[in-house]
């Protein structure tokens, strides 16, 4: 397929290249040849209006037909073949194996929701009538779920497939019966267009209203504001920085009609290393943490950013092993030059903080590549410098040496909300692990034992969210079968005749 550089507006490709932009080849650090059009205010308006029109028919589409649509999208994504992989690799600098795996996850997510729709997983709750109940008879009540309406989705920078055009937010919204207006990420517009072409083909094959999906390209910040404030948009899914997320949240809060904003904004994913684990497996654990940190050049939302333990005679063994592993890492490319520059500035600023020591750095490389960095500090310095408590997007980790159990409890109290935390322990550490787990559970959406935080299983029991700023709604997940509930609302039907009930609620 060829890249048009245009926006997909309800089945039609359009775009004015007067204000066009290009992505950057992340590895070569040079502009890519494709030019993309900044969407106009009119095009965004058309996309939202057509999505609103499509909602009338799409929301009534039987579950089995929505399932077929989701599967067809997956088939069309696979049919893109190597072209999709090559484009995504060029735009992000991520290796082909990573993109291939992410493509599999994207198709798998679509298939998961298709399976659940076919199985009647979301059919609702039935409470039968009881005419004999005293003092009043009980009516027949049935709890069902209605799609919210048009959903605005913002693609993630670090997952060009699984959290972008046909990613988890799009898949769960379409599964719920909601049309999607997708704002592509400006770092990988070519990848976004290819996937949009696949979705457009699936719409055609399944004979669905083309307004059910539109792709908006552009670097113009006004596009985001127009989407989140538009009265026809009824929910927003966002993955990005805390700064941008809070701007969008503020704009949503000023709407006459409040709508849900499901934002994933940042996480340091603290690691808690217990005493016996440190004494018996220091070197292995250090190497595993470095390997987890380096996945995607530290650009996973679940990357382990802070490693904590109570100091002991085993501390030097762990730190030496971690330093050696960091020093052996090769310099790598980040998703965009701006992200690489921001990372380098953060690492440089940390080196100027009194009480913070740079333990090790990775190997140097091409000028626009980044080196891994491992720092160490104490609780007093950590408390005094809030910058150390924020997520660093890139291959950087901070070791926090604690003096005793009291400092450990104080550190947990300082933590903001996180997507994950992990406890690394042996059976001998069970008492201490229990104390940590009880406290840390209130700070995270997923608590892990003796495994790394990177990697998210797409299944019914997964929760990918957490207290702010990990996400803007700690009651929801953006991964797994429960993600669909973000784009539905409950409705109770009381004493309704069968003919007036939705299919799944009929006797």
Automatic annotation (TrEMBL):
The keyword Protein transport does not apply. It comes from the Bacteria. Residues 21-466 form the Aldehyde dehydrogenase domain. InterPro entries: Ald_DH/histidinol_DH, Ald_DH_C, Ald_DH_N, Aldehyde_DH_dom, Aldehyde_DH_Superfamily, ALDH_KGSADH. It holds the Pfam family Aldedh. Keywords: Oxidoreductase. The keyword Ribonucleoprotein does not apply. PANTHER family: ALDEHYDE DEHYDROGENASE-RELATED, SUCCINATE-SEMIALDEHYDE DEHYDROGENASE, MITOCHONDRIAL. This is Aldehyde dehydrogenase. It comes from Thalassotalea insulae.
């Amino acid at each position: 397929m060829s890249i048009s550089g245009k926006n997909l507006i309800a089945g039609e490709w359009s775009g004015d290249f007067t204000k066009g932009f290009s992505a950057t080849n992340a590895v070569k650090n040079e502009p890519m040849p494709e030019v993309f059009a900044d969407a106009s205010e009119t095009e965004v308006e058309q996309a939202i209006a057509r999505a609103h029109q499509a909602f009338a028919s799409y929301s009534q589409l039987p579950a089995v037909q929505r399932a077929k649509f989701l599967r067809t999208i997956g088939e069309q994504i696979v049919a893109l073949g190597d072209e999709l992989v090559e484009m995504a690799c060029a735009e992000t600098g991520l290796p082909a194996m990573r993109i291939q795996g992410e493509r599999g996850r994207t198709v798998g997510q679509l298939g998961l929701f298709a399976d659940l729709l076919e199985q009647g997983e979301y059919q609702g709750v039935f409470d039968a009538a009881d005419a004999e109940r005293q003092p009043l008879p009980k009516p027949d009540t049935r709890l069902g779920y209605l799609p919210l309406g048009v959903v605005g989705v913002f693609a993630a920078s670090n997952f060009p497939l699984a959290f972008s055009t046909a990613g988890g937010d799009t898949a769960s919204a379409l599964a719920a019966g909601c049309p999607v207006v997708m704002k592509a990420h400006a770092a990988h517009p070519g990848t976004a267009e290819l996937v949009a072409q696949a979705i457009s083909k699936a719409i055609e094959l399944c004979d669905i209203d083309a307004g059910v999906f539109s792709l908006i390209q552009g670097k113009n910040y006004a596009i985001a504001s127009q989407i989140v404030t538009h009265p026809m948009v009824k929910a927003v899914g966002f993955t990005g920085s805390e700064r941008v997320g809070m701007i969008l949240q503020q704009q949503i809060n000023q709407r006459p009609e409040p709508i849900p904003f499901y934002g994933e904004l940042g996480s340091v994913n603290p690691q808690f290393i217990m005493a016996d684990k440190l004494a018996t497996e220091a070197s292995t654990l250090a190497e595993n943490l470095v390997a987890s940190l380096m996945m995607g050049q530290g650009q996973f939302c679940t990357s382990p950013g802070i490693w904590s333990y109570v100091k002991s005679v085993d501390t030097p063994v762990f730190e030496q092993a971690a330093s050696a592993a960091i020093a052996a890492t090769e310099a790598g490319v980040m998703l965009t030059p701006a992200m690489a520059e921001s990372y380098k500035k953060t690492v440089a600023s940390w080196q100027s903080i009194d009480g913070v020591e740079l333990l090790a750095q990775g190997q140097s490389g091409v000028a626009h590549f980044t080196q891994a960095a491992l720092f160490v500090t104490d609780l007093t310095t950590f408390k005094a410098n809030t910058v150390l408590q924020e997520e660093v997007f890139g291959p950087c980790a901070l070791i926090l040496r604690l003096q005793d159990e009291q400092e450990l409890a104080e550190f947990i109290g300082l933590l903001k909300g996180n997507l994950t935390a992990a406890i690394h322990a042996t059976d001998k550490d069970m008492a201490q692990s229990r104390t940590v787990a009880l406290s840390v559970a209130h700070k995270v959406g997923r608590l892990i034992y003796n495994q790394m935080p990177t990697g998210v299983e797409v299944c019914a029991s997964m929760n990918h969210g957490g207290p702010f700023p990990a996400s803007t709604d700690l009651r929801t997940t953006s991964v797994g079968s429960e993600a669909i509930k973000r784009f539905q609302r409950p409705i109770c039907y009381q004493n309704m005749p069968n003919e007036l009930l939705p299919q799944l609620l009929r006797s």
